[in-house]
Amino acid sequence: MSLTIVDRPSPNHAPRPETSAVDTLVLHYTELPLQSSLDILSDPKRELRVSAHYVLAEEGTVYRLVPEQRVAWHAGRSYWRGRDSLNATSIGIEIVNLHGDHHDYPDRQIAALIDLCRDILGRHPAIVPRNVVGHSDIAPRRKIDPGLRFPWKTLAAAGVGVWPKPGARPFEGDVQEALQRFGYVPAVDLPEEEILKAFQRHFRPARVDGIADIETRSLLAALLDQVGAGP
Q: Record's InterPro entries (predicted)?
């Protein structure tokens, strides 16, 4: 589909550090309707100023708020693959959805999201598949978006992100160490259960219980193998 992009500049942004390459794409849901989301992400008077590079409406229109070469304030306290404070090296997309655990994402919206993400990945080759993440991946316990109904598998099939291939033998080692190898925050900063829930929310949304069962270990083993982060 052809993307419809509307420039709707936000004043909430900052320079990127000259030594920082954009290597992470963070997907969020808004939990608010479109206009409320645009207003908040463009409000320079809020005590905690926030923004995103893009806002994606339910019918597929893309609103561009912050240029990709500038830092938008969407990730907050965050961690992925050994680094924290990910605003400096990421692009953030806010997807209009009132609650991704309860509301499906329209097909037209997801089609537009795939096109937008492909464009971004083409401009930023350092964003490898496992660096396409949800807010819940980089801020476990604190965030749950883009939610249980977000179609990660569909995106991965379209070349956006990674999805575990079936049939892997369950991972038999230290699960927390393996989760950290994939990208998640160390368990010294959060309980292992909360990190497992973040992993399951992304890769096994049918049951998010924080238990390192055989299915979870198999998914983790498959992902480590696919991204070349095995033992």
A: Amidase/PGRP_sf (IPR036505), Amidase_domain (IPR002502), NAMLAA_amidase_2 (IPR051206), PGBD-like_sf (IPR036365), PGBDSf (IPR036366)
Domain of 181, in residue numbers: 175-226
Say if CB 105 and CB 150 are below 8 A apart: yes
Given this model, what pLDDT does residue 189 score?
76
For the question of whether the overall pTM of this predicted structure is more than 0.90, the answer is: yes
What's 69's domain CATH number? 3.40.80.10
Per annotation, catalytic residue among 18, 31, 68, 94: 94
231, pLDDT greater than 90? no
Is 59 contained in some domain? yes
Number of H helices, E strands in the chain: 7, 10
**CB-based contacts of 229, cutoff 8 Å, min separation 6:** 181, 182, 223
Number of domains the chain is built from: 2
Tokens of 185: 């925050």
Q: Name 42's bridge partners.
A: none
- One domain, residues 138 and 186: no
The answer on 196 and 141 residing in a single domain is: no
The per-residue pLDDT for range 65-104, each reduced to its tens digit, is 999 999 999 999 999 999 999 999 999 999 999 998 899 9
Continuous segment of H or E residues that includes residue 62: strand 62-64
